[in-house]
Amino acid sequence: MSSHLDPLRRVRVGCVRYLNARPLIEPFECAGGRVTLEHPSVLASRLACGELDVALVPIFEALRSPEFRIADGVAIASRGPVWSVFVAHQGPISDVTEVALDPASLTSANLCKVLFSEWLGTSPRYVPEPAPPGAARLMIGNQAIEFRARHGDAWRYLDLGEEWLRRTGLPFVFAAWLIRPEVENPGEIAAAFRALASEGIAKVPEIAASQPDPAFALRYLTEWIRFGLGDEEKAAIALFRALLIKHGQLSPADGAQPLVYV
Known about the structure:
The chain is an alpha/beta fold and 262 residues long. The chain has two domains: 3-78 and 171-247, D-Maltodextrin-Binding Protein, domain 2, CATH 3.40.190; 85-168, Periplasmic binding protein-like II (D-Maltodextrin-Binding Protein, domain 2), CATH 3.40.190. It has eleven helices and twelve strands. Strands 1, 2, 3, 4, 10, 11 and 12 form a seven-stranded mixed β-sheet that branches. The chain has a five-stranded mixed β-sheet with strand order 7-6-8-5-9. α1 (22-30) links the parallel β1 (13-16) and β2 (35-38). The two termini are 23 Å apart. The mean pLDDT is 94.
C-alpha cells in the first residue's frame, strides 16, 4: 500500500456504496485497504456508536454531531444538478401533498424539507417508504439513477442540487469524511483522504469504464458530481445549518458549536 495511505490502516473506515463515492475510496481498496461499504444511514449509526472510526457519511451527521472532525478539501458535492438526488413527482411541484422519504440519507431528507419550507411554498406530509399511491418520492444514490433510467419522462424530477443552487447561488455538500473525536492524529487521516481523492479522481475514466453504462458513469462523475470542499462549500454548509435551525430540523444547541475542519 502506498505510504501516504498508511494512516488509513490504523482506523476502521466506512464508505457509502454509491457510484459517486468510488473515486474517493477505490484506490484504497485496490491497495488492500479494508473498508466497510454500507448505505449512508447505516454508516452514520455505526460511526456514532464507535464501530467505525471514520466514514464518508451525509453532512447532516456533522451538523447534529459537531464533535466529529471533518476532513477538509474533499466531499461529495454538486454545483447545480446532481442527477442522483431528487423528488420524483407527477404534475406540478406545487401540487405535491405527500413525499415518501428514502431512509438512506438524512441529509437529502432534510434538504428536501428545507427546500419546500423555505422556497417552494408548500408543506407536504412526509411519509416513509414504500410510497403510497400518488405520493412523490425522494430518491438518492444508485437507486435514483436506476429509477430515472427505468422511468425517464414518465415522471418529473426536482433535482435537489439544482434547486439549491438556483435558490442560494451556492454548491451543496451531500457527504464528507467524518472522524470521531478520540481518533489520534486526525490531520494525518484527513491528509490521507485528500491524497486518496487525488488518486481516485485521476482514475475516473477507468472507474467509469467498469460500470454497466460507462458513458453515463463518466458524465455523472465529471459533470454532476464534485469532490472539493473549499470556501464556497463551507459557506453552503453554514447556510444549510442555519436553515435547518430556522425550520426546527436541528437544535440551536448543536448549531452553536463550531464545525472543525482538519
